[in-house]
């Protein structure tokens, strides 16, 4: 029976210890990595260097600089209107899942291309595969239902010569999550997802307004700018999406070591725990991540017991 936490794990008030973005942005070094960022940097009211986080072009250029300086990604861009994610928070997901894998690998994070990750909803930005590959050398399969997002992610991969370790697939079954992208013979060490959190466009817009209203209190933004419908909302919101994901995951219980997803609303967790218990997940983890005023959670579950997970990594090519 799944171990259903009564509440999320201990609150983590800062980014993961291995996250290179724990300290404030070093704008002089970022400008050195990407001179184009200089046009967007200014002294704010606290006499600190900053950018205008209400300017999507400034935020995108900051992302370009972060990716180039910290991950060696020389070519990155996204189409207008698509999600421009906060890289520090995305990197946290990668590092915490690395810790989950390490538990069955002699407390050592498994590295190298033999570690396979499935990113459900890779988006036009392809951030998770870029960060995961550049940090740990992992291989990724990224999937998305949106043609433009798939084309954008593929271009990022090609422009950075990463096709051998990152491949991007169109999910041709719009209502499916794993079906059609996990094939017979595939094995993934974990799956990850940043699901559409909202139940409607109206709800998504209200959430965005709250973020904009709070923006002037933030020295380092953790906001997402842009986002198409399938990135921000879906019918039933994250609760329905997660329950569907959990139900589908049973069909691939021996092909995936750990399934995981971000959870935005803690109110979503009880229903997920109930579903995981119903489908007989063996182990369930809830990892709370905090970045400034923003809190999110990773929900991870597996159908493999501890011995099976240890054997999984013992059999993995070194």
TrEMBL record:
Its main location: cytoplasm. Keywords: Cytoplasm, Methyltransferase, rRNA processing, S-adenosyl-L-methionine, Transferase. Gene3D superfamilies: Vaccinia Virus protein VP39 (3.40.50.150). Residues 1-21 are annotated as: Disordered. Residues 1-14 have a biased composition (Basic and acidic residues). Its EC number is 2.1.1.181. Belongs to the methyltransferase superfamily. METTL16/RlmF family. Specifically methylates the adenine in position 1618 of 23S rRNA. This is Ribosomal RNA large subunit methyltransferase F. The lineage of its organism: Bacteria, Pseudomonadati, Bacteroidota, Sphingobacteriia, Sphingobacteriales.
């Amino acid at each position: 029976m799944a171990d259903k936490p009564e509440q999320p794990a201990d609150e983590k008030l800062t980014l993961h210890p291995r996250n290179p973005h724990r300290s404030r942005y070093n704008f002089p070094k970022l400008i050195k990595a990407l001179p184009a960022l200089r046009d967007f940097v200014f002294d704010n009211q606290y006499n600190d260097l900053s950018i205008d986080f209400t300017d999507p072009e400034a935020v995108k250029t900051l992302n370009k600089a972060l990716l180039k300086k910290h991950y060696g990604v020389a070519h990155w861009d996204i189409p207008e209107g698509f999600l421009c994610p906060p890289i520090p928070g995305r990197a946290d997901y990668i590092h915490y899942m690395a810790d989950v894998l390490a538990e069955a690998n002699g407390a050592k994070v498994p590295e190298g291309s033999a570690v396979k990750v499935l990113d459900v909803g890779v988006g036009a930005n392809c951030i998770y595969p870029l960060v995961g590959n550049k940090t740990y050398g992992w291989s990724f399969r990224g999937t998305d239902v949106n043609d433009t997002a798939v084309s954008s992610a593929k271009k990022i991969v090609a422009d950075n010569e990463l096709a051998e370790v990152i491949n991007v697939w169109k999910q041709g079954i719009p209502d499916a999550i794993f079906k059609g992208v996990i094939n017979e013979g595939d094995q993934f060490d974990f799956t990850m997802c940043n699901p559409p959190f909202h139940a409607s466009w109206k709800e998504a817009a209200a959430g965005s307004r709250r973020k904009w209203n709070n923006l002037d209190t933030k020295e380092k933004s953790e906001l997402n700018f842009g986002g198409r419908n399938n990135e921000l909302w879906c019918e039933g919101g994250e609760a329905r999406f997660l329950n569907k994901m959990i139900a589908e995951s049973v069909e691939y219980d021996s092909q995936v070591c750990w399934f995981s997803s971000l959870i935005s609303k803690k109110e979503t967790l009880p229903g997920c725990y109930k579903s995981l218990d119903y489908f007989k997940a063996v182990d369930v983890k809830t990892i709370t991540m905090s970045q400034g005023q923003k809190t999110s959670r990773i929900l991870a579950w597996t159908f493999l017991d501890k011995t099976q997970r240890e054997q999984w990594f013992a059999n993995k090519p070194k």
